[in-house]
Write a structure and sequence with these properties.
Length: 129
Amino acid sequence: MTFKGRIVVAAVALLVPSAANAASEANFDAKTTGDLVALCSATPDNGVGTAALNFCQGYIQGAVTVEMLNMAAFRGSKLFCLPNPPPTRSQAISGFVSWAQTTPDRMTQSVTDGLFHFIREQYPCPSSR
């Protein structure tokens, strides 16, 4: 194989998602941010892709809803403040995946720590004066 041929093969390999990054049944334990990112990044053509995407959406929606109910019930500082109108589910999930993937340390955080660090950074509450 020529040098140019090797470069083309290497470039194509980098562009094609690796099977190692595909969602697996083990990710459904959702212990780390990386597990949730794998589920949220799945494609329906993956063996568990549709279930992974459904799990991702349900997990995030449930976690955010519970925290919003907690913030409404208890006085004190809020963890986050969603804008009006709020982001779409797909916008928020895409943002979470991108945020987590930018720093490898984020992928090893617990799933709730990672998710709520993202939400707090992405949707901070305005400073009260």
